[in-house]
Specification:
By secondary structure, the chain is mostly helical. It has five helices and no strands.
Length: 84
């Protein structure tokens, strides 16, 4: 069975969770050896799973939201902003 990127993406969750048929895992592993896009997709998805499972809470700095919205508004209107 020859698989392509769509096959990998269809089975990405099961692959990462280790709940996939061993033969299909071998085929996906073989595909990942030469497909940098799918390899990056698998790595990124794993990172997201790890981050979402992290129960730590981070407080954003004071004024961050206001600065972010000001920069977004400026970007939408094509204005330059001070990066500080």
């Amino acid at each position: 069975m020859k698989i392509d990127c769509k096959h990998v993406w269809d089975h990405i969750s099961s692959y990462i969770d280790g709940e996939i048929d061993p033969d299909l895992r071998k085929e996906i592993d073989r595909h990942l050896e030469h497909c940098s896009i799918c390899s990056a997709t698998i790595d990124s998805t794993r990172n997201i799973v790890v981050l979402m499972a992290d129960e730590r809470v981070y407080e954003i700095p004071a004024g961050f939201s206001k600065r972010l919205h000001a920069r977004l508004d400026a970007a939408i209107h094509g204005e330059e902003t001070d990066p500080a």
